[in-house]
Predict the 3D structure of the following.
Amino acid sequence: MAANKSNQKQTNQKKTSGSGTRPTLAKVENPPDSVPWKRRSFWVVALEEIRLNPRVWHRADRLYTRATAAQIASDLRSVHRRGAKNVRVKGVVDGEAWDARWELSPDGPDNQYAIWVMYLGGGGD
């Protein structure tokens, strides 16, 4: 019994990693001089590409729930009336005209909807 207790004490001791080093604080320094990275939403990039081929339907490469697809399509269709600041889709410009449709995705999982978008012009073309 005494041997068991001494073994038990040894196994309950805290083990160290063995490295003996602690993490150092981050260095204070400026980042390298380069073009700053800019986070861009999916719709900013997609709408830029769609503008290159106006009056042609493009299917967005994302799937959405029914409610989200309907809202995005509605926002795109009404940007010319509401203005870019009053819609939830990033990447639109005041004065642009868009058409958008949403339907069940032809090749996606059940209950996932695709959005088709057409750029009609405006916004300083």
Observations:
- The longest helix spans residues 66-82.
